TrEMBL record:
Keyword list, A-Z: Hydrolase, Manganese, Metal-binding
SUPFAM superfamilies given in the database record: AF1104-like
InterPro entries assigned: ARMT-1-like_metal-bd_sf (IPR036075), ARMT1 (IPR039763), ARMT1-like_metal-bd (IPR002791)
Keyword Cell membrane among record annotations: no
Taxonomy, superkingdom: Bacteria
An annotated GO BP: DNA damage response
GO molecular function: metal ion binding; phosphatase activity
Residue ranges annotated for the Damage-control phosphatase ARMT1-like metal-binding domain, each copy included: 22-363
Reactions catalysed according to its record: beta-D-fructose 1-phosphate + H2O = D-fructose + phosphate; beta-D-fructose 6-phosphate = dihydroxyacetone + D-glyceraldehyde 3-phosphate
Family membership: Belongs to the damage-control phosphatase family. Sugar phosphate phosphatase III subfamily.
Protein's recorded name: Damage-control phosphatase ARMT1-like metal-binding domain-containing protein
PANTHER family xref list: DAMAGE-CONTROL PHOSPHATASE ARMT1 (PTHR12260:SF6)
Organism of this sequence: Streptomyces resistomycificus
Amino acid sequence: MPDTPPPVILGNEPGSFPHSVLAERHPAIVRQVREAFPYGPEQHRALDALLASCAEGVIEPLSADAPDRARWKTWGMDQYSGRSWFDVPWLWSESYFYRRLLDAVGYFDPGPWQGIDPFRPFKLAELDSRETDEELAALDDLTDRPEDEQAAALLHGSLWGNRADLGFRLSDADAEGRAAAPGLVADDSDTLRSLLTGEGTLCLIADNAGRELIPDLLLIAHLLAHGRVERAVLHIKPYPYYVSDATTADVVDALRRLTATPGQAGAYGRALWTAMTDGRLTVRAHPFSCAPLPYRRMPDDLRAELGGSALTLLKGDLNYRRLVGDMMWSPTTPFALATAYFPGRVAALRTLKSDVITGLDADMEATLVAAEGQRWRTGGTHALIQARG
Ligand SMILES: O=P(O)(O)OC[C@@]1(O)O[C@H](CO)[C@@H](O)[C@@H]1O
């Protein structure tokens, strides 16, 4: 970390991307969830209250009987209660919004709605889409290519799968139609490959379900099958989060989708199923995966686990923000400097959907700014692969 850390991103600047997420994306998510289920009057009242709170209210603490109240206290709930959603760190207020949304629909309460994922209809629609069929069918064309070409294609599949983020598309309806920029803004794929030595465990910190999780699983299947890693641990979320973030149920849905597909996709699916049953692939839902905090503040058990792995690979925009810290870094700050605190080797695959960025070279930054002003940061058309050994 530099002597003077860069400013932490807040949501209180009208016209900024974080402000639009709090003021527009969150209310849109509440409305979509409300329409997707026949919730009763109690949930409708709670959703109305959440909408009002998002618009002009302040952060309220979790109820006294919330199962995770103590945890949220250690994560800053008392410090931020009573303050505007817009004035606290944006990472914190976004994360807390999803926790409150689950409260409103009774996700944690004993009763009929307990454990019902309010985002499941959107996730399933994506898994059943024609695009998913096409992406899986395309795997058959890869099988007779050399192994390193297959690995590179699957790595890029996993990277660009990160465009499939339902929360993002909800507030930016044109996002999917915009073409992805051809080159990467930073490309450490050679370093990343060199870190996959065949020994030890890969920890893949997953992001979205559906069309991102499927290529993540395919990448893991390939790395296991070709001895590039001995084992893999897939870190998913313990509860629904940021609309499409993957939970255990989503992993099962994705695996079932794969095993039901003919050809190479089905073969990968069956190999993954076997790897889960014999312990080479495990799924982990650590509470910190839904924490409103940067990884710098990860608890000791997670630090030891990630530090003991051969490589931690973080997927997506939010994990990137948490990895380097949700701050306005100078874009040319070295990725290795911003992640120096992280235990062990680390890599990130991310499409750019928020202001945070490190590790660009000065020419690349100048080219992006000349072409797009600052839109390249948030438009979801650019991507990066960064790694530190
Ligand atoms: O982590 P992901 O799925 O790649 O992206 C998450 C995201 O859509 O949500 C946040 C804003 O709400 C940003 O980090 C980003 O735009």
